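User: Sequence for beta-galactosidase below. C-alpha cells please.
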Amino acid sequence: ALWHVHNEYGTTCHCPHAEVAFRRWLADRHGDLDTLNDAWTTSFWSQHYTDWAQIGTPRATQYLHNPGHLLDFRRFWSDTLLAAYTDQRDVLRAANPAVPVTTNYVLGDWVPVDHARWAREVDLVAIDHYPSAVDLGAEEQTALAADLARGWARHGAPGRAPDWLLMETAPNLIYAAGRMHTKEPGRMLRQSVAHVARGSRGALFFQWRAPRGGAERFHSALVPHAGADSRVYREAVRLGQALDRLAEVRGRVAARVALAWDAASGWALQHPGLPAERLNHHEEVAAAHRALWHAGLACDVAVPGDPLDGYPLLVVPALYLADEATAGWVRDHVHGGGHALVTYLSGVADAHARIHLDGYPGALRDVLGVRVEEFHPLGDDERVALTDGGTGTVWAETVGLTGARTVTGYAGGVLAGQPAVTRHTYGAGVAWYVSTRPDDATYRRLLTEAATQAGVAPTCPDAPAGVEAVRRGGDDGSWLFLLNHTDRPQTVPASGVDLLTDATVTDAVHLPAGGVAVLREPTG
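Assistant: C-alpha cells for beta-galactosidase:
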C-alpha cells in the first residue's frame, strides 16, 4: 500500500565524507568565497577564508561558533538527508510507480530537517508524535503536531491533495521526563481522533507487540507484555471500529488564522551568543498555538511566502530570520487589509543571521510602527507585570512608538509605563506587536481580541472550556469533531448525526468525561 523509507531522518555527523560534501554544498549555495565571507561576516575575529579546503564542519570550539557557519550546516544536512531519501524513493518508483513512497518526520529541535521543503518529495507527509506532557499539555501538543503536519503537507507537489498521516505514536504510554505515564482509559481513542480531526488519514502506532528484550523492551505496544487479553488491545480494537465509522469525513479544516513557522529561524535561535539561552522559535510557536487552541480558534501553519488569502489574521511568533521577501510577505498582508500579530525576536536578522541595523524588529519596523532600542531578557523565574493584570516572561524590551499606539504597558521595574503590546494601522490593515511572552490566560485574551477585530470567530463559540472543537468539510458537507478533555460531562450546542453512535443530535451534544463525538452536520 505504501513504501516507508528509512526512519526518522535527522542524524548528522562530522566525518571527512560529510566535510567534503559540506564544502561542495557551500560552493553551490554561495558561488564564490567572497560571497560566503560576506554572508558569514568572517571579517569579525579574522575568520576570512581564502580556500574552500579551509572550511570544516562546525566542531567543538572554545568559545562561540560563527552563526552563519552553524546555520548553513543545518541547511546542508536538510538537503543532504533529503537527497538520501530521494535516492531510495527513485529506486522504488522505478520498480512500481503506482505505490506511494514516504518517510516518517520526527519532531524536535534537534532535527536538521526543513519538513515543509521535504513535502514536495514525499507522496504523503507522515509524522511521528510522542507527547511529553501528562496533563492537558499532551492534548495541546497533539493539536500543534497535527497542524504542523497539515501545514507542511500544503507544500506537496502541484495538484496533489495536502494529505498527511500520523504514522507513529504510542498507544498506551506518554514518555514524560524521567518516567513513562500510562494513558488513562479512552485517551488513546481521543488523541487519535484529534489527529483525524486535523486532517490525518488515520492513526498508526509503534509498535504491534512489545518485545521481551532489546533497548525498547518497555516501549508502548498495541499488544503489551500482558498479551491480547488487556485493556490496551481492547481499546485498540475499539479505535479501529471508530476509524471505520469516520471514513466518510473529508475536506479541509476550517481555519481563518495563519500561524507562521520557519525551520531556519528555529535553527538560528539555537546558536550560542544570543542574549539568553532559553530563546526558542518552536516554543514561541507552541505558546501562540496553545493560546489559539484554548481560545477555540483554528489555525493553519504557514511558511513565509505561503498565500494568505482566506486568513484575516496572521500570527508571527519569533520569526527571527526575515529577508526582504519575508518582510514583504507580512507587510503586503497587512497593507492589503489583513491583521497580523507579531512577537518579539521577529525580523531581527536576515537569512544569513546578520542583524538588521537601526533598531529592532529590524525588517518589520515600518509595518509595526515601533522601534526597539534595548532588550531585557528575563530570568527563568522572573516575571514582569503588565497593566492589563497579566504578566510577561522570557523577554521584555524598551519599545519606542513610531506610529503605533500602546495597548498594554509594563507595570513595574525599569520599564514601568512603557509599551509592552502595541497596535498600528498600516495601509488597510492592522499590525500588533508583543514585546514579551504573556502568561497563557493573557495571551489567550490578546489573541481573542486580535481575532475579533480581524473578523475571526471560534469554531464553536459556546463550547465549554476543555472541549476541543474542530470542523472539517467543503462544499458537499461538514463534520464537527468535539473532544472532551475534562474529567466531567460537558454539553455543547450542536446538531447532526454522531458517526460514532449513529445518534441524531438536535440541540446539544452530551459528552461524557473524556468523551468524543463526530457530527455530520446538516447541509447548510
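The radius of gyration is 24 Å.
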